[in-house]
Every structure is written in C-alpha cells, then in structure tokens.
Amino acid sequence: MTGPLTLVWAREPIPAGGTSVFLAGPTPRRSEVPSWRPAAVEALAAQWTRPEPLTVLTPESRDGIRAAHYDDQVDWETEARATASAILFWIPRDLRTMPGFTTNVEFGLDVSTGRAVLGCPPDCPDPERNRYLIYVARRHGVPVRETLPDTVAAALAIATGRD
C-alpha cells in the first residue's frame, strides 16, 4: 500500500513538515493549451511507494481562479519552492504558448539548492531554448532528464534522500 498524495494549489496553506515536491515550469496562459501538471501528478502518484503522504505543490490555481494580486502568487511560489523537499522543473518549451521565461529565473534561483531536478523533453516545440538551462544544471550537479516519468523519479529520489 502506498501513501496518498495531497495536492496543494497556488495560494493555499503550505503544510509544515513531510515530504513535498514543487512542480516548477511554464504554466499555460490560454485555456486551449493543456497543462503538463496533471500528468506529473499522475506520475508522482504511480511512483510514490512510501506509507506517509506526499504533498504536491502546484503554482496553478484551483478551478483556474487567478490571484487578485500578482505579489500574492509570487510570494506563495517563492515560499513553496523554499519549503519543498524537491523542486521538479519540467520545461516543455514552446515560445508561442508556454515560453517559460519566469521558469528560467526560478531555475537560476534554485539550481544550487541541491533540491532541483531539470526535465527538458527533446521533442518539445523549442528544445534548443533549453540548452543553456541543461548546461547550467550539469555544471551544478542537478539531475537532467528527458521524460516526465524519469524527472519524477529523480525528484522523488531527492525528496526522500535517495539521490
């Protein structure tokens, strides 16, 4: 029997303690662009084998209700990344629909924490725009993966101290 997942949406209270993974990466801004995060949550649920719950922190808003104040969103994301056991960066870069410019900055802030994992699918629309992040990740010893399941596995290894 595996433990349950607790999904915490943007601006909701962040539970203290326990194992947690923050889902960092570009967020779709248009409704016709699907989010990658549901697949990440499914992969986390499939790979989580411990009896205690895993908290998954997503910067997406419950029911799509955006923050009334931008600062509230940024402050929540900053706190969530700072408290997460692992920070899973998944960057299916598409300059037209999910450019990930904020993600670049967040990765730069988190690359030296020892808690980051970088996932960059080579079949995304603009994979060449991830080259620099991959280079920086490798220089800092951050695991780099090409599939979402492999990125999830690396994040769980860090979160549970198995890296």
Structural write-up:
Helix content is 34%, strand content 15%. It is built from five helices and six strands, in the order E-E-H-E-H-E-H-E-H-E-H. The chain is globular.
Offer a quick outline of the entry.
The protein has helices at 37-47, 70-83, 101-110, 131-139, 148-159; strands at residues 5-8, 19-24, 54-57, 86-90, 116-119, 144-145.
Notable traits:
single chain, alpha/beta, 34% helix, six-stranded parallel sheet, 163 residues
Distance between the termini: 23 Å
User: Which percent range describes the beta-strand content?
Assistant: 15-25%
Q: Averaged pLDDT, please? A: 95
Which segments are poorly predicted (pLDDT under 50) over 5 or more consecutive residues?
none
Q: SSE string, helix = H, strand = E?
A: EEHEHEHEHEH
Task: Estimate percent helicity.
Answer: 25-40%
How do the strands line up in the largest sheet? 1-3-2-4-5-6
Spatial extent as radius of gyration: 15 Å
Question: Helix- and strand-based class?
Answer: alpha/beta
